[in-house]
Amino acid sequence: MASGAAIFVILLLFSWAGPFLHTASPYAIHPHLLFQEPSWQHLLGTDDLGRGMLARMMYGGRPSLGVAMIGSVIATLLGLCYGMVAGLSPSLVDKSLMRILDAILALPTLVLMIFFAAIIPLDPISLILLLGLVSWPGLARIVRNEVLAYKGRDYILAAKQYGASTWYLARTHLLRSMFPIVIVNATFTVADLILTLAGLSFLGLGIQPPQPSWGGLLGNGSNLAITGSWWLILFPGIAIFLAIMSMNMIGQGLLNRLEGR
Q1: pLDDT for 30-56, tens place per residue?
Q2: What is the tally of structural domains in the chain?
Q3: Residue 74's domain spans which residues?
């Protein structure tokens, strides 16, 4: 887990603190520097417009990581609320909410996101909302099942006998008991959303130019692969891989600690 956290912190520093050290503009076009290979002058090379890949990688990490993290928070809150309501509701309401959830889970997420991305003006805010709104159902089912498992325990029943309200039980007992599971799920959701956003940007439906993103840089590099510009694919691909791997390492480490491994 420590290794994953260290990698992710390095990626955050690279994206947010890096531009203060490397002040080159990611948008500046230099026609005389087209397709420059990595060198001491251009550490990550340049693209088809002569723009420095180092600066574009730094600025591209901001939406690639920021949108995924905030989207994960939204998905976690929605899933937590829906699962809590379903688990604490009467049986008929619970079954109805679960059938609705089953219908939502049956929808192909990627196709759904491509559909909304094609009709909604794309910017970081809309992408955060889009990713958050399609990523909560899995957690909702987990939370609902945990609520059903916990609400029959003695300390919950005792609290009910002493007049504790449903809101008090959810806030004081159930949420505290499920907090570790929710945090683990949130870390895995960040990894999923980084990959999903990279895929959308690769297809031209994510972060829109001229704003760089790792998925967009990878897509642009793949279109230029015929020129032999390997660095245009390698560095965005490595960044996406490291971001996903680091969050999965963090999530797996937390899960192992919860299970006492």
Answers
A1: 888 888 899 888 899 999 889 999 999
A2: 1
A3: 2-18+42-259
